[in-house]
Every structure is written in C-alpha cells, then in structure tokens.
Design brief:
Elements: E1 2-11, E2 14-24, E3 29-33, H1 40-47, E4 52-60, E5 63-64, H2 70-76, E6 78-81, H3 93-100, H4 106-119, H5 121-125, H6 136-147, E7 154-158, H7 166-181, E8 185-189, H8 193-199, E9 202-207, E10 210-216, H9 217-223, H10 225-230
Parallel strand pairs: 3-8, 3-9, 6-7, 7-8
Antiparallel strand pairs: 1-2, 1-4, 4-5, 9-10
Helix pairs in contact: 3-6, 4-6
C-alpha cells in the first residue's frame, strides 16, 4: 500500500528526518516510537504533503505521490488525525464533520457522518454542540471521525492518547482495531509505548531523525527494544 524509499524531509534548510524507508500493507499498523523531536510528526506531515520531501520517494498503491499536493493525497485515500486534534471550536460537531467531507456529495457526506456516529455515539448525542465545549476525549473522537469522512485506506494518527483518560484512550484504540480489521493501513505516532506495541504489526524507533531500529512488535517485545533504546 505505502512504500517509502530513503525519505529525507524537513523545514527550510533543516533536515528533520533522514533516509527513512519502510512499507505498510493493507490491514497493517506501523507505530513510530521515539523521544520528542525525533521526527515522528514531521514524517506524518510529509506523507500528507504538508512538509517538504527533500530527497527520496513516496509510493502509494505503486503510484509515486512524492510531488502530489495534500488535497490530491486525500483523494488518493490518505487521511490524517493531527496532533492536538485541531477541530474547529466555533463550529458544531456536525459542522466539523461536514467540513471534513467537503469534497464529497451531500448524500455521501451525510452517510459518512452516520458511520462516524456509529463509531462514536456520543458525537451523535451532541451533534449540535460547539466543538470547543467538548472534553479532550470527545474532541479526539471528533478528530478521528472527521479524518474518516473521506473513506481513507491509509490513516495517519498522531498522538491519539495525549492528555486523555485511560478509558477514552481504550475507546479510541478499539475503533482503530476495527478499522484495521476492515483493511485500513494505519501509521501511528504514540508516546504510550505499551499501546503502540500492542496495536502495531511493525515498529520504527526514531531518534534525531534517524531510524535506529525497525522490526515487528514481537521482536520489539522479545528484545526489550523500547526499554533499551528509550529509557
């Protein structure tokens, strides 16, 4: 589904990620783990076309999308749940979801909103409530539902558990597991290493923009990689 070949990306003259390569297949989860500033979020933003790819190539379904603008990548089936949620606080839940599906027909948009409500029933109950008045957990649910509006086949998820109660984190991860079961590829940036390993098929450990370890979650647990490299 997704293949990166020697990706180097950054801001201006600064290289944030260097020579990164990995693959993600349909129904697989790849988790990025590493300290703050390691380049995890920058990699996701580069995949969305929001950070400059300086070198290397990005292939999605065997198509080279390295130079595609972000709106075209969305149409190709890639969507982002951003760090910090980035919902529109002065719009209602329903209006936020409509914005997420603005490229769709009205009928399709309403159908996908209904799917989002199925994943997160609390959003349906409060659909007319301003998003800025929601709890952090509810805002995270809204950010996830908004990203799903375009029927992505590859979902990029940045810090889903940040600042949330464990119960809400578990609910969000149950949705990710359901999406994985439907064949979505998922790339997950997560500080909660236990959740990241539990969810992932494959793990990439980033440090200062370099991949210092790559392998399966089983290998990571067996070799105690996370403890050795990050603590």
């Amino acid at each position: 589904m997704l293949r990166l070949e020697n990706l180097t990306c950054g801001y201006g003259e600064t290289q944030v990620v260097r020579s990164l390569s990995f693959n993600v297949k349909e129904g697989e989860v790849l988790s990025f783990i590493g300290p703050n500033g390691a380049g995890k979020t920058s990699t996701l933003l580069c995949l969305m076309g929001l950070v400059l790819c300086k070198e290397g190539s990005i292939f999605y379904n065997e198509k080279n999308i390295t130079s595609l603008p972000s709106e075209q990548r969305i149409k190709e089936g890639i969507s982002l749940v951003p760090e910090g949620r980035r919902i529109f606080p002065d719009l209602s839940i329903f209006e936020n979801l409509m914005v997420g599906g603005h490229t769709l027909s009205k009928d399709k948009c309403l159908k996908n909103i209904s799917k989002g409500y199925d994943y997160f029933p609390i959003l349906k109950q409060r659909k007319n409530q301003l998003a800025g008045s929601l709890s952090g957990g509810e805002q995270q649910m809204l950010a996830m539902a908004r990203a799903l509006m375009v029927n992505p086949r590859l979902l990029l998820v940045d810090e889903i558990s940040l600042g949330l109660m464990p119960k809400i984190v578990d609910e969000c991860y149950e949705v990710l597991k359901a999406l994985k079961g439907q064949g979505l590829g998922i790339i997950l940036v997560e500080q909660n290493t236990e959740k990241a390993i539990e969810m992932a098929d494959h793990i990439v450990v980033l440090e200062a923009g370099n991949a210092i370890w790559k392998g399966s979650s089983e290998m990571a647990e067996k070799e105690d990689v996370i403890q050795k490299l990050l603590i």
